[in-house]
Write the structure tokens for this entry.
Amino acid sequence: MELRQLEYFVAVAEEAGFTRAAARLHVAQPGVSAQIRQLEREVGEELFDRSGRTVRLTAVGEAVLPYARAALAAVDGMRLVVDEFTGLLRGRVVMGGVSAPSVLDLPGMLSGFHERHPAVEISLVETDPETLVDGLQSGRLDFGLLGLGGALPPGVEVQVVVDQALVAAVHHDHELAAGRSITVAGLKGLPLISLPVGTGLRTVLEEVCAQAGFAPHVAFEASEPYVLGQLAGRGLGVAILPESAVAAAAAELHVLDITEPSMRGRMGVVWREGGPKSPAARAFIEHARRHLPSL
């Protein structure tokens, strides 16, 4: 019995078909069928029912599947332990997040890790905050970057890496362009331009407006902070955005401080409490936390 046979067996079971399993494994379909036949001869029983339109596990196949998965997991674990002892990291790290301000230098952080651990693959997944946190808790994601608003759920650790003032920005022809600041109460009834619901900036905006006794009137939403300024620069409303995002449309914008109270936008890197099991992911988190600021 070979590990390759077990790998093929698990793939066919999970994909419910030999063709899909072959595509997943990047091998020819006849090769998968041959290896499964060989495995069935060795165990003395058929593992799949091939009589229908889809391939299904037999009762014996159902009973064998957990042991096949456990054997493959054990081999992966053995390889990881050996890699740790030899100092060679392999594997894949999945980082979820949103667009990051230039002050964080994420490209520099990523390139520095790649230079030290070239055998580790890194996947960057752009997602919304709720999905990101869920991905951390379920293990689909190893690490994340998101705007901070309300409290994070238990089991998620955070390191604040950005803390900057939120400002209001309008076109130079806007009636507010004659002033230098605006109170939170002064935002009532104005068409605002903001990040979507659930983001850290939007949560802060909604909380301070609620404290002032009103709900903000958000006329336009955009998922990228710099786009908020561009929309305000076209005269579409009052953008609420981080100071660092003003530069993208600075020539078209008049910026006002927000007072009574002031608002701040924070971003943090987040990871599952206790860290991921993968040595590669643990090393990535340690590297990122050293490279990025701690505020």
Observations:
- The chain is about 40% helix and 25% strand.
- The first strand starts at residue 48 and ends at 49.
